[in-house]
Design brief:
The chain has 657 residues and is of the alpha+beta class. It has 24 helices and 25 strands. Strands 13, 14, 15, 16, 17, 18 and 19 form a 7-stranded antiparallel sheet that branches. The chain has a 5-stranded mixed sheet with strand order 2-12-11-3-10.
């Protein structure tokens, strides 16, 4: 039997699972195991490689990164950009330093970039990439919030640092994104995407900062063989540099403790510290291994852990149909806060942890921020994924992709999949319910308060639960109910538009409601022949509309909403008909506008002056408004085919004179 056969088999298993985890993390910004589990398996692989002397070709202990997937230009680094060896033990840091001086810095969690200057001007910015080949992001680096594009140094100058986005900016950017699924998971993902943008305007809007932690090239300056002096010099040239106090073996524990206190409120993403020899020549003389330079050592926080009892697994459904397990346990104090819940990521992680109700588990906060389960002490392995969705009771099924198991709801009508419809339903032009953000709607759906659109008006049934939810309270609840009660007094147009019928925008909803004089029954039972008689409603819109109401579930939704609201009496006499300078004219608006804030404002202007604004060019369209009258857009082509005049905003304003 081959020597180390069992060890080699285990190494193959570890290499495979760690490679999948690394790909998920770095390429897809997702997690298939906890940080603690990854570190444990990684350390096990390192020990086996040392024991056997074997390193497999796919081993993550030798890989620095993955192939670059973006469309940015690529360039080779002059020498490999390596990662750092790591420890969680302060004594190991002390032994590494020995009797020498070192500098202790934040290990920043962003995107590594090398900036190169020639005769004082920024000429190149190159990402770390896969360690050997990086992406050229020079144009984007020039719009970073704090990067000097010119420095008072003549000659070749280069620094290495980390592009980061502050937590405060990250939260602000995420809050501005209405679609929760489109929000970024962490600042590292956001900065990575921001730096790799092909449009520098987007990069500039993201408030990317750059923090220097190493000076690579700078001739003619005497640094007295000190890396600390190098960083001080870079700071004098206008760069923001990482904190870098000088330390000795005996002062290391105290400095690490200072950092561990700062991290609790630090606005810059960091996942540990870096200890580096202050002596430049000594660090260089040590050389490097295949993966690590020997002049530095990373320190990862030894996370504060607590033992507790698992009480339940909540299954959280999303609009994509994905249902993720969330561990609920007895309250514990971690890093200064009370923690009762932790994401388990997916079914595979849950199975690996062998979770069961009543198990004694050990929990921690990854990087002092994200609650996770470190280990399951009793490992009863009694929890199985639910057969039905917690939101709609539809059938669930497990998907297995590359060995990673995830749970999905198979019901296409599941309310958890309809957060976007709910968000549309409460929006300003629809039911106009202030204070119901997409995040709140998702939370209420997860908690089972909302199963259909009309349930938005029935939230008072869940007062006790809503008041106790994180981020809510009695005042928030009272404001919410006041907003829903106010929204009950509504119009036919709002109700119809709120249904989210494909192809039926606000303008079309207005035309249909006006045609049927706000008769809600007639609106529901409209036929294609009736609809195409409406100026601005074409065959496709009519077909889509009638198909929507042929669906019994959609009809029930419509009627349930009507049962919760009071539709105002129609008031079309004289409104927009037979009055105003634009009476009898139908307009379609396309392209950018200049004299109005946006197309919606122009649309409102048209309607206020007796005209109609629709979304589709038909034979009944009077004018197509497009500032680019020679555009080859589909609407311009259609207008030319039908002989519809194409006018600019200037031409339109002349009609008003």
């Amino acid at each position: 039997m081959e020597k180390f056969a069992n060890e080699r088999k285990r190494m193959e298993e570890l290499t495979d699972v760690l490679d999948k985890a690394a790909r998920a993390y770095y390429q897809n910004a997702s997690e298939i195991m906890t940080n603690a589990e990854y570190d444990r398996l990684y350390d096990e692989l390192v020990l086996l490689e040392k024991k056997t002397g074997i390193v497999l070709s796919k081993s993550v202990t030798r890989k620095v990164g993955y192939e670059i997937l973006s469309e940015l230009p690529k360039e080779h680094h002059p020498e490999p950009r390596l990662s750092l060896d790591k420890t969680k033990e302060v004594p190991v840091l002390q032994d590494f330093l020995g009797g020498r001086k070192g500098i202790l810095m934040w290990k920043l969690d962003g995107l590594t970039i090398v900036l190169t200057y020639e005769d004082g001007k920024l000429v190149k910015a190159l990402t770390r990439g896969n360690g050997e080949i990086g992406e050229v992001v020079t144009s984007n680096a020039k719009v970073f919030k704090n990067v000097p594009v010119e420095i008072p140094y003549k000659g070749l100058f280069s620094v290495r640092g980390e592009a980061i986005i502050h937590y405060s900016d990250f939260n602000r950017i995420n809050e501005s994104i209405g679609d929760i699924d489109a929000r970024y998971k962490n600042p590292r993902n956001l900065v990575s995407g921001s730096v790799r943008q092909l449009n520098t305007k987007i990069t500039a809007e993201r408030d990317v900062n750059f923090i220097v932690y190493e000076l690579l090239e700078c001739d003619g300056v005497d640094f007295s063989d000190s890396r600390s002096a190098q960083l001080d010099y870079a700071e004098s040239l206008g760069f923001e540099v990482v904190e870098h106090p000088l330390v000795a073996r005996e002062t290391l524990p105290e400095e690490v403790e200072k950092y561990s206190e700062k991290i609790k409120t630090y606005d810059i993403p960091s996942d540990g510290l870096v200890l580096q020899y202050d002596s430049i020549s000594y660090g260089i003389s040590l050389g490097r291994t295949a993966k690590f330079p020997r002049h530095s050592l990373a320190f990862k926080w030894r996370d504060e852990t607590a033992e507790t009892t698992l009480r339940s697994i909540d299954w959280s459904a999303s609009r994509t149909g994905l249902i993720n397990p969330v561990a609920v346990f007895d309250p514990v104090e971690l890093e200064g806060t009370t923690v009762t819940r932790a994401s388990v990521h997916n079914v595979s992680v849950m199975k690996n942890l062998k979770l069961g109700i009543g198990d004694r588990i050990r929990v921690y906060k990854a990087n002092m921020i994200i609650p996770q389960i470190l280990e399951n002490i009793t490992a009863s392995d009694t929890i199985t994924p639910p057969a039905v969705c917690p939101v709609c009771n539809g059938k669930t099924e497990i998907h297995d992709e590359d060995g990673i198991q995830t749970l999905y709801c198979t019901n296409p009508e599941c309310m958890a999949k309809k957060i976007k419809l709910l968000t549309h339903f409460v929006s300003r032009d629809a039911m106009n319910i202030a204070g119901l953000s997409e995040m709140s709607l998702e939370k209420f759906t997860d908690e089972g308060f909302i199963h259909e659109l009309a349930d938005v008006f029935r939230l008072s049934k869940h007062k006790k639960e809503i008041v106790s939810l994180e981020g809510f309270g009695l005042k928030s609840y009272e404001n919410l109910i006041a907003a829903t009660d106010k929204a009950r007094e509504t119009t036919a147009v709002r109700v119809l538009y709120s249904m989210g019928i494909p192809e039926i925008g606000l303008a079309a909803a207005k035309l249909i409601c006006r045609y049927f004089n706000d008769d809600m029954t007639a609106i529901e039972n409209a036929t294609p022949d009736e609809l195409v008689k409406i100026d601005g409603i074409g065959d496709i819109m009519a077909e889509t509309y009638t198909l929507f109401f042929k669906n019994l579930a959609h009809r029930q939704t419509y009627e349930d909403v009507l049962s919760e609201v009071r539709v105002a009496a129609p008031s079309y006499s004289g409104e927009n008909e037979g009055e105003g300078k634009l009476s009898g004219l139908t307009f379609v608006i396309t392209g950018d506008v200049k004299k109005f804030k946006n197309r919606k404002e122009l649309q409102n202007f048209i309607e206020e002056h007796g005209g109609k604004a629709t979304g589709t060019v038909t034979g009944k369209t009077s004018y197509l408004i497009n500032n680019d009258v020679n555009s080859s857009s589909n609407k311009n082509k259609k207008a030319k085919e039908l002989g519809v005049p194409i006018i600019s905003e200037e031409d339109f304003m002349n009609l008003m004179r």
